[in-house]
Each structure stands twice: as structure tokens, then as C-alpha cells.
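FIELD: query
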Amino acid sequence: MANKWTRSAAFRFYNAHPRNANWSWSARSSDGKTVVVTLWKDEFDGPAGKMVYARSNLSDWHDGPGRRFFFEDLAWSVAHCDSLVRVIVAVRDPKAPQRNRTVEWYPQKALVMRVVHFDPVTGAFRLEQVTIINLAVKHPSGDRPSIANPA
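FIELD: result
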């Protein structure tokens, strides 16, 4: 059985520093060149190598600083990291009354995703897996993902 990671250790794996060890779902490295996001394991779609992670709204997100910083970090990724993010996979506790209780975190060394759509107002975003070999290749739709412009 693999060793379980703490949330803080999972962020440290990427040399990233969350703003708060208890509620942060994202972080940046000290040099700002890496953004790390935490994503629910059961919300990935597609086969390995072509996975997609998409949310259409804020639905079950708690309205707190963790959510706000998550979206700030996605925006930072688009502006400063060629829209790339590293991933920590979060596993839900199936016995918890609330579906958002996390029991395990795993940094995914080979999983890199690109932000291809991001709307900070509605909370919609779409991340698509990129292979490490294709990191230098620009996104097929152009240099930048579609980002909604808040009115």
C-alpha cells in the first residue's frame, strides 16, 4: 500500500507553498513558474493521456478564500505559465456525510494540464491533459485559452 500524503506534503512535492495548509486548493512555486491545483479524482473524464477536468459553475464550491485563490492561481497560470498547471489528485471520503471531505492527496508527477477555458465570474473552467513531450506545443486554438471577460 502506498504511503498517504498530507496536503502540505503534496504541495511541497512541487516546491509550491499554499497560502493556508487547511483550506488551500492551489498554490504557486516561490519563483511563480509553477501553479499547482487540487482536483477531485472522481471528476476527471476521459482515458489516461487525454483526461479532461471541467466545471461549468461554482455549484458545490464553498464561498471562501480557497476558492478565490484557486481562481487567482488559474489566472496566474494563463498569464505566466503558458496556461499549464500541475495536479494534486484529491480522494473523497465515501463515508463522509458531505461529499467534499478529503481523505487522501496524491501529487501526480506526470500529469500536466492546460487551462483551455476559464471564467472567474461563473466558476466555469476546463483543463485538458498535455503530455510532457508536447509541453512546448502551443494550444491548438492559439496562444491563449478562452477567458471570459468579466463585465
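FIELD: remark
Residues 134-151 have pLDDT under 50 and may be disordered.
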